[in-house]
Amino acid sequence: MEEMSGIRKAALLLISLGAETSAEILRHLPDGMIQKVSYEIANIDFVNPTDRETILDEFIEMSQARQYVIDGGVDYAREVLNRALGAQRAKEVIDMLTQIQLRERPFNIARKADPMQLKNLLLNEQPQTVALILCYMQPDKAALILAQFPLELQTEIAERIGTITRTSPKVIEKIEKVIENKFSSYVENETETVGGVNTLVEILNSVGRGTEKNILHALDDRHPDLADEVRANLFTFEDITTLQNADVQKVLRLVDNDDLMLALKGVADDIRNYIFSNMSQRAVETMKEDMQFMGPARLSAVEESQQKIVGVIRTLDESGEIYLRRGEQDAVIS
């Protein structure tokens, strides 16, 4: 399902919703999209019941997530979805929604352009045009570009950004076409920045512990500098002792007790004791009793539970609810 194109998903969804509802939806789509979806529908002979259910579930989740973002922003949406779907699925839904929103927004070509090339081209544009484009760009990239302008232009552009409230879609479309034609020779249409240490860390934080260890051991021999950099940014279950007590307690509130008991099987006493120190005495006593009756557990099951807890920690870190110390990052000032 993850590899299925958006057009095919849309076609399956419309088939699942029935002819009357689908016709009403298609009426509101652009002509080009209607043609693509209609062609896909015509080439689907049978909808697997499992695919149908998955598509409908994903559509409902995305619709709810979009509404949560409108109601309270991304952090609010993530918090609600965490409770409803679990940390991992919530992250997947938010990531999909973010990508969809980015594709839907105007000036997509500008968001992909190299910041310095973009700055050189925008220097010759009117301040109101620059302001409009920056409004639709990633904040960090917009900040980098704005800082390259002369001070008097920075102020004028900033003022226009702060006072823009509404802009006609036709005006946006007209400017976008001009900008796309102007930028087309500067943007690397065939390549995008991918990979790197951060991407590797994100992947390793999602694989099993055994795979993670094997890759890092191999990197020690092949590329020791890369291995060191990855370790400096990689959060493992054992690193839970580096969290503040309040942060550990936030994590424990979102962790299933069965996963916690499995995750603690075979870990060092200092790790187990640190986690227990952030639980009530009654909860600790109950867990210790339950663990005595658990019996042996498969290593893969233990590692899977540990990875689930690491996933919760990473989700809370990404939403800014807890803080992970990584590598040479600055200390937090309270």
Automatic annotation (TrEMBL):
It comes from Jeotgalibaca porci. InterPro entries: Flg_Motor_Flig, Flg_Motor_Flig_C, FliG_a-hlx, FliG_M, FliG_N. It comes from the Bacteria. Keywords: Bacterial flagellum, Cell membrane, Cell projection, Chemotaxis, Cilium, Flagellar rotation, Flagellum, Membrane. It is a peripheral membrane protein. One of its GO terms (cellular component) is bacterial-type flagellum basal body. Coiled coil: none annotated. GO terms for molecular function: cytoskeletal motor activity. This is Flagellar motor switch protein FliG. It is found in: Bacterial flagellum basal body; Cell membrane. Residues 115-188 form the Flagellar motor switch protein FliG middle domain. Residues 3-106 form the Flagellar motor switch protein FliG N-terminal domain. One of its GO terms (biological process) is chemotaxis. Residues 218-324 form the Flagellar motor switch protein FliG C-terminal domain. PANTHER family: FLAGELLAR MOTOR SWITCH PROTEIN FLIG. The gene is fliG. Its main location: other. Pfam families: FliG_C, FliG_M, FliG_N. SUPFAM superfamilies: FliG. Belongs to the FliG family.
